[in-house]
Amino acid sequence: MDDQELGFKAGDVIEVMDATNREWWWGRIADGEGWFPASFVRLRVNQDEPADDAAVRAGDRGAEDTGAEAQSSRDQMRTNVINEILSTERDYIKHLRDICEGYIRQCRRRADMFSEEQLRTIFGNIEDIYRCQKAFARALEQRFNRERPHLSELGACFLEHQADFQIYSEYCNNHPNACVELSRLGKLSKYVYFFEACRLLQKMIDISLDGFLLTPVQKICKYPLQLAELLKYTPPQHRDFKDVEAALHAMKNVAQLINERKRRLENIDKIAQWQSSIEDWEGEDLLVRSSELIYSGELTRVTQPQAKSQQRMFFLFDHQLIYCKKDLLRRDVLYYKGRVDMDGLEVVDLEDGKDRDLHVSVKNAFRLLCGATGESHLLCARKPEQKQRWLKAFAREREQVQLDQETGFSITELQRKQAMLNASKQQAAGKPKALSRPYYLTRQKHPALPTSLPQQQVLVLAEPKRKPSTFWHSISRLAPFRK
């Protein structure tokens, strides 16, 4: 939020003091005054009164009139919500056009001030979003019934374009980088004057550029709220009911997918730092194939041919399992010992007793078997519950890989290189090679959006708080600190 922006929560009543601008109003609540987006609130004009009025009038008229009044009230409420969806969409399209034409076009004319890479950092893929939103807005207008608005069928539009909304993931992930770059440029007066000139030429309201660039992040989170409101006033017999219901579920999934991708991309720097803390690393970098740590812990590895037992620390990432050896004297130092490719691998749960291949007695054991190469790894946990946690972790790893394939999630070569460069810089600067408490490696499902939320509530994509996982307590002891 900017200094002059008004903060509020769902249910607050704001006194509007200046509404001359369609997009940003000046308002007052108990805590103070400031600008707030007009599209984030609704006016208290007969949106809740009609049902009450109908009930009062019903006392003087028959039950038949009561039903007609109630139906008319619901139709009016649905009309209000549809008009709000269309109105905010038109305003949003104008907002995107102002950014693309008022800022980006002017920036490209000043090659002496902005490189293409710099513009990509500041504006992300907002031009792609603009193109997709124009197509979506046209589809909404075509579905709008001007004569009888409450009969409009908008649900199908969201379902047809739900895949397009996934481009917001890239924008949301890049937005923090844009804020950092704008903060850096804001210290140089020529950029401050340039951005202000762009705003004035485009006749945009007095909000800084980073405030304008926050709107797409907020917009993608507002769709589930609008659809929840639309579903609330769509009777089950309405032709649009099933589509609106499906659209609400789809847009919630889009928001959750964006959240998850944001969290995963925030991990890659930390995973690169973790790799740099491992001594004698061999082979390709972790980030070439992996971006998530699923589980970790200590297991006994039984090797052929003498059935030798080795205590190793195992780290299960998507696509691969890394195992390391603790230093004999400094138990907080790990040495790389190998990896197991999880793709095409079969996890076999073994019963306690004598293993038929190695002819040794095993307990709490399971085998990792590669059908293509015949390679086999016999691993034993200390307790039955630890074994079960590992078996569940292997199942989660396969689910994660399948989900990534379905959603198209991947780390670009540039992102991987940048993460490894950041890790090497941190190590060269004499900082600890690993994090003291890598909470980022714990997993927790993102909370689903509630099925019913007030229309004026605004969600901003953010990583939810996570409870620290107990099995990662050991990692803090494994991080080597060097002077």
Automatic annotation (TrEMBL):
PH domain ranges (all copies): 292-399
The DH domain, residue ranges: 77-261
Disordered, as annotated region: 52-75
Regions of compositional bias (Basic and acidic residues) in chain numbering: 54-64
Positions of the SH3 domain: 1-46
Record bears the keyword Cytoplasm: yes
CDD domains for the chain: PH_Collybistin_ASEF, RhoGEF
Superkingdom of the source species: Eukaryota
Coiled coil, from the record: none
Alphabetical list of PANTHER family matching this protein: RHO GUANINE NUCLEOTIDE EXCHANGE FACTOR 4 (PTHR47544)
Name of this chain's protein: Rho guanine nucleotide exchange factor 4 isoform X2
Organism: Vulpes vulpes (Red fox)
Phylogenetic lineage: Eukaryota, Metazoa, Chordata, Craniata, Vertebrata
Gene assigned in the entry: ARHGEF4
